[in-house]
Design a protein that fits this description.
The complex is a heterodimer of chains A (251) and B (319).
Chain A (H helix, E strand, L loop, with lengths): L1 E6 L1 E3 L21 E3 L1 H17 L2 E8 L4 H8 L5 E6 L7 H14 L6 E5 L10 H9 L3 E5 L1 E5 L2 E8 L2 E8 L2 E5 L11 H9 L2 E5 L7 E8 L8 E5 L4 H10 L4
Parallel strand pairs in A: 1-4, 1-6, 4-5, 5-12, 6-11, 7-11
Antiparallel strand pairs in A: 2-3, 8-9, 9-10
Helix pairs in contact in A: 2-5, 3-4
Chain B lengths: L1 E4 L2 E2 L2 E2 L1 H11 L5 E6 L7 H6 L4 E5 L9 H15 L3 E5 L2 H14 L4 E8 L4 E7 L4 E7 L4 E5 L15 E5 L14 E3 L14 E5 L9 H10 L3 E4 L1 H5 L20 E5 L5 H7 L4 E6 L12 E4 L2 H16 L1
Parallel strand pairs in B: 1-4, 1-6, 4-5, 5-11, 6-10, 7-10, 13-14, 13-15, 15-16, 16-17
Antiparallel strand pairs in B: 2-3, 7-8, 8-9
Helix pairs in contact in B: 3-4, 5-8
The chains are: A alpha/beta (251), B alpha/beta (319).
């Protein structure tokens, strides 16, 4: 089976974010880059399916030419080849991104049986590119998948919600978006890394589209220190906490 | 007029939808609501209470349960008929998904997770990005604004309105619209009883718990307070606890009355999922842990001593 996984290069930020002087982007001078958390699960799912059923795993991204770094590191996990749609480094809006990805998929000789996305990007959280692509490609789509199985031309998926699991199925070809917890992403092996250097990353260009969801500026969310009241150290502080819990009616 | 999609689980409303209704009312126009699936008609009273005069109910034989693409189709049909200025829904996985289907059908932009909306030409929104750590100011170039309302950004406000009048309609679905839907459910990983979404008290553990065994103490405390156990991402990726318990950007976003964070340093992705809790208590050995910035109260100390002592003190106080 032929699988496509769509990825996005994002800065790796765990602590405080800093903005560029024009307040349009995150200052990335001191940050490394990676892919969004759920996307590691997407690649792992693709690699596992190809191991089980044979076929190919293609990676696709839209971003600056530096995104080759992320594609190579995921090729080392076991993907077959990768395609990079090169932008000028500007962020594209969801409609423009979806249109460019659709164009690239339609231009492929391979007709993909399954297209996998991470459930949400770490940085923009637009929640729509995959759905727009499903509409443009005429494919069924299941989102937020936490476990999956491919059998007899059907992808069978579970979504975890607060009160349990919901079961969905879609006939292939289909699009799914997956969440952290679907599997445990493997680390690249040394031979995997060696092979990744020789694998093809095909560079493509496309016209930028005028954004309809137009970013003006970014601002840091106000996160003023709530000024926690330190009740004390260790178990000695427990009586003070019990008083607080009583006051707020916790018991 | 502003049209609000009310999301529901077999006739039971998603409380986040009431926040979306409240946000819609603040735009100063009439508000109408829509539910998908015939059992949504049960929502007329609550829709009215929160300010919707009319509740459109989209029923179709093919919509037996949550069917996101069909929701998009039904919304499209109603939007083309009623020509609202905006369509809003909760910024929940389902709210985002159903409105994205609408946006895809109409091929117009959608702004997800908005904390502020100004109608105009273009429309303007403030929306949350980077797990709520960044606010984007954005223009939306379309006649119809499609937007979801950031969870917990608006408190639901009742207007004590009379039950909404029901307006039933049957959307003209294409066969492809109902291919993907909920086919069945099971209790899965959830333990039954109190879930993260409706827990009033969450006792959450992180790396500092040290392993799966350490969670016994947290469970005992949570049970004593009538709550449930949550955890950070490192806990689920280490396989100490099931994924259903994960709080944060990649897990569940929660806002209980009391959130006790034990042994959690507070990566911004975790903070994103719990910072709206009413009272936050932190138990951590590190007085510099980033999560302290978000805490109301803190004990600097080892959770392995503090939690059992707290449990027995509460037990004693309860008598």
């Amino acid at each position: 089976m032929d699988i496509l996984v769509c990825l996005k290069r994002v800065p790796l930020a765990g602590g405080t974010l800093i903005l560029t002087p024009d307040a349009r982007d995150i200052e990335t001078k001191h940050l490394g880059f990676g892919i969004s958390p759920h996307e590691e699960n997407a690649v792992e799912a693709g690699v596992q399916l190809v191991e089980q059923m044979g076929g190919t795993l293609t990676l696709l991204t839209l971003g600056p030419s530096d995104a080759e770094e992320q594609l190579r590191s995921q090729l080392a996990i076991g993907a077959t080849r990768a395609v990079l749609i090169e932008t000028d480094g500007q962020e594209w809006d969801p409609q423009g991104t979806a249109a460019a990805l659709v164009e690239a998929i339609k231009a492929e000789e391979t007709k993909f049986d399954l297209i996998i996305f991470g459930a949400e990007s770490a940085d923009s959280a637009g929640y729509q590119i995959h759905i727009r692509m499903a509409h443009a490609l005429g494919l069924p789509i299941v989102t937020n998948v936490k476990s999956m199985k491919v059998e007899n031309g059907t992808v069978s998926c579970d979504r975890v919600v607060a009160n349990g699991r919901e079961h969905y199925e879609a006939p292939l070809p289909a699009i799914i978006t997956v969440r952290d917890g679907l599997n445990i992403p493997r680390y690249p092996s040394v031979p995997g890394r060696m092979q990744a250097r020789k694998k093809t990353v095909e560079m493509k260009k496309t016209e930028a589209r005028i954004p309809k969801l137009e970013k003006v500026t970014l601002a840091l969310a106000p996160s003023k220190d709530k000024g926690a009241e330190i009740l004390g150290k260790g178990a000695d502080a427990v009586p003070a906490l019990v008083e607080v819990l009583k006051q707020i009616g916790a018991f | 007029m502003i049209l609000v999609l009310l999301d529901h689980d077999r006739g039971e409303i998603d409380p986040l939808s009431l926040r979306a209704l409240t946000a819609a009312r603040k735009l100063g126009q009439d508000v109408e609501a829509i539910v998908i699936c015939s059992d949504g008609a049960a929502l007329a009273a609550v829709a009215g209470e929160y300010g919707a005069k009319l509740l459109h109910v989209a029923s179709h034989a093919a919509i037996t349960d949550y069917t996101p693409m069909a929701s998009g189709r039904a919304l499209k049909e109603l939007v083309e008929k009623l020509k609202p200025a905006a369509v809003l829904a909760a910024g929940s996985p389902r709210g985002n998904e159903q409105l994205a289907h609408l946006a895809a059908f109409l091929d117009i932009p959608m702004a997800a997770e908005c904390s502020e909306i100004t109608l105009g030409s273009p429309h303007h929104v403030l929306r949350a990005r980077w797990a709520g750590n960044l606010i984007e100011s954005a223009n939306v170039h379309a006649e119809l604004l499609i937007a979801t309302v950031l969870s917990f950004s608006t408190e639901p406000e009742s207007v004590n309105g009379a039950p909404a009048t029901l307006a039933q309609f049957e959307p003209a679905l294409e066969p492809a619209d109902s291919v993907v839907k909920i086919l069945s459910r099971d209790a899965g990983e959830s333990k039954g009883g109190v879930t993260l979404n409706d827990a009033k008290v969450i006792v959450s553990g992180g790396r500092g718990v040290g392993g799966p065994d350490g969670f016994g103490n947290l469970e005992e405390l949570a049970a004593l307070l009538g709550g449930t156990v949550g955890c950070s991402r490192v806990v689920t990726s280490s396989g100490w606890r099931p994924h259903a318990e994960q709080v944060g950007q990649t897990g569940t976003k929660v806002a209980p009355d009391l959130y006790i964070a034990a042994g959690i340093s507070g990566a911004m992705q975790h903070i994103a999922g719990m910072k709206n809790s009413k009272t936050i208590v932190v138990i951590n050995t590190d007085p510099e842990a980033p999560i302290l910035r978000y805490a109301d109260y803190a004990i600097i100390g080892d959770l392995h001593q503090v939690i059992p002592a707290l449990t027995s003190a509460i037990r004693q106080a309860k008598g």
